[in-house]
Write a structure and sequence with these properties.
Keywords: Plasmid. This is Hemolysin-type calcium-binding region. InterPro entries: Hedgehog/Intein_dom, Hint_dom_sf. This protein has two domains: 155 residues, no CATH class; 163 residues, Endonuclease - Pi-scei, Chain A, domain 1. The strands form eight sheets. It has a six-stranded antiparallel beta barrel with strand order 1-4-6-7-8-9. Strands 12-23-17 form a three-stranded antiparallel sheet. Strands 19-18-22 form a three-stranded antiparallel sheet, with no helix packed on it. A hairpin with a 2-residue loop joins β24 and β25. The longest helix has 13 residues. The protein is mostly beta strands. It has six helices and 26 strands.
Length: 368
């Protein structure tokens, strides 16, 4: 069974420039050059056919996909673009600096025509991944050289996450609270904005103790009972790191012009009572979706259903994606383009961390 790693700190190579011009990342930028990028972050999802795979493959064969890692092989490693699995490698990592801070940037080559080489037009540096801190956009940064040129890079250095609930989470439904693992297609779930809505698709993934040890970023986030405010959640809530939680406050209103926003759980770790649940031995994640992105009640807290944006669509198996497209045919045309509308404003990582910090500084609950 394939596994998937999501890289949320990604831009397209075409968003970047070296010395003010477009750049071919077949080779590293020249010494003494200036690097910058513009625009917003995107994400890409890496599919590993081997469910024990832990590494983003490097470039040991010089711009050629290793035979065992090609489509159809047991070691297949790909990313989905336009509905097609394309070979992908993390070629090298280089460093830039603003004089005070340094930033690591991984160069991801994608085999856009699947001819098993990675040096055709647009393939080198199709994606760039920020490893660690994200540099500011529209800011000239000094190139410092290649910091790593390995045959493989641990996925754990940047993480792979799913948007889902842990088993045991109690979801409000038409028949009262029901454990998420006991939900089925067609079950009616209470939503914040649209009343009872039928589940249109549901999926799950079990993460073993071995997988958690290899990639700690797959550990769930625990939101302790009462942490959010207004006695929510009513019991400890375990969600995947990127699962968004509703924040409602005057601080959100001042910062974003709306009093209700959705923030990824791992971005709220500064708040007391929210922690990485490293004590779990294994975890099974569940995710479900409706005709539209909704806010549901889980262990008494308001959280999101699966958001059918391009990232989420690419981050599930081909079989599951085929099933989703049969239920939501409009998603096939939408994938990689206009995402599903969010139930609330969806904060990026920097925004959510700033929001959490403001609440902590002012001793205010995240839900008021």
């Amino acid at each position: 069974m394939a596994i998937y790693y999501n890289y949320s700190q990604t831009i397209f190579g075409t968003q970047s420039s070296v010395n003010g011009s477009a750049f071919n990342y077949n080779f590293a930028p020249p010494s003494g050059s200036t690097w910058s990028y513009t625009g917003s972050l995107t994400s890409h999802v890496v599919r590993e056919e081997d469910d024990n795979a832990i590494n983003y493959n490097g470039d040991p064969t010089n711009e050629t996909v290793s035979p065992g890692q090609r489509v159809g092989q047991s070691g297949q490693q790909t990313t989905n673009i336009g509905g097609v699995e394309r070979h992908a490698i993390l070629d090298y990592v280089f460093e830039v600096s603003d004089g005070t801070n340094t930033y690591q940037i991984g160069v991801v080559d994608v085999d856009l025509n699947n001819d098993t080489d990675l040096d055709d037009t647009g393939e080198d540096g199709y994606y760039l991944v920020f490893v660690g801190d994200v540099p500011p956009p529209d800011t000239p940064l000094s190139y410092r050289g290649i910091s790593s040129n390995s045959d493989a890079y641990s996925h754990a250095s940047v993480g792979g996450v799913l948007v889902c609930f842990a088993s045991g989470t109690m979801i409000d439904t038409s028949n009262g609270q029901k454990a998420v693992e006991h939900l089925h297609l067609g079950d009616l779930v209470e939503t914040r904005d649209a009343g009872l809505q039928a589940i249109r698709w549901i999926g799950s993934r079990k993460v073993s103790a071995e997988a958690l040890a290899v990639d700690p970023k797959l550990y769930p986030i625990r939101i302790k009972a009462g942490t959010l405010g207004n006695n929510t959640p009513t019991r400890d809530l375990l969600v995947s790191p990127q699962h968004r939680v509703l924040v409602r406050s005057k601080i959100a209103q001042r910062m974003f012009g709306t009093n209700e926003v959705l923030a990824g759980a791992k971005q709220l770790l500064e708040a007391e009572g929210i922690e990485v649940a490293t004590d779990v031995s294994e975890i099974e994640y569940f995710h479900f979706t409706f005709d539209a992105h909704q806010i549901v009640t889980s262990n008494g807290a308001q959280t999101e259903s699966l958001y059918l944006g391009p990232m989420a669509i690419r981050g599930i198996s081909a079989e599951a994606r085929k099933e989703l497209f049969s239920i939501f045919p409009e998603l096939r045309a939408r994938a990689g383009h206009r995402p599903q509308n969010g139930a609330r404003m969806l904060l990026n990582g920097r925004q959510a961390r700033s929001l959490a910090a403001r609440h902590v500084k002012n001793s205010k609950a995240l839900v008021q």
